[in-house]
Amino acid sequence: MEGEGLARQVLPGDRRGPAGEGVPGSAEQHQRLVGDPATGAAAAALGGYLRAIGEVTEATTIRVRQGEDMGRPSDLLVAVDPADARVRVTGQAVPVVG
Asked: Is the N or C terminus of the chain more exposed, i.e. has fewer CB atoms within 10 Å?
C-alpha cells in the first residue's frame, strides 16, 4: 500500500494525511504547499538514530536520496561514527526562485 514504511512524503495538492485520511482545506490551499526536497535535519536525525540503536558499528557514510517525487531529486551524505557524538550531513543546494 502507498504510504507504508518509515515515512510518506506529502506532495503539493495531496489531500491525504499520513494514514491516507482526508486532509481539510481547499484544493487551492493544498496546491500552495511546498516542502523541502532535501532535509538535512531529518537526515542527521536518521544517522543519530541508527547509531543509537546499534545499526552503525563503525564509521560509515549513508546516502539519503529525497525529493524525487517533487521533481527535485537530492542526495545527502550522512557521516556517522560510533566514537563521535556528531553526525555530519553534506550535500549540494540549488537556489529556488519563487
From this structure: C
State pLDDT tens for residues 68-77: 877 788 899 9
Rounded to the nearest angstrom, the gap between the alpha carbon of residue 28 and the centroid of all alpha carbons in its chain is: 25
Q: Which H or E run contains 42?
A: helix 40-52
Q: 9: number of CA atoms within 13 Å, CB side?
A: 16
- Cα separation, 38 vs 16, in Å, equals 21
- Say which residues have a Cβ less than 8 Å from residue 1's Cβ, sequence separation at least 6: 20
Mean pLDDT (the chain, rounded)? 74
Instruction: Please tell me the distance from the alpha carbon of residue 20 to that of residue 6, in angstroms, as a whole number.
Output: 14
Contact 34, 12 (CB under 8 A): yes
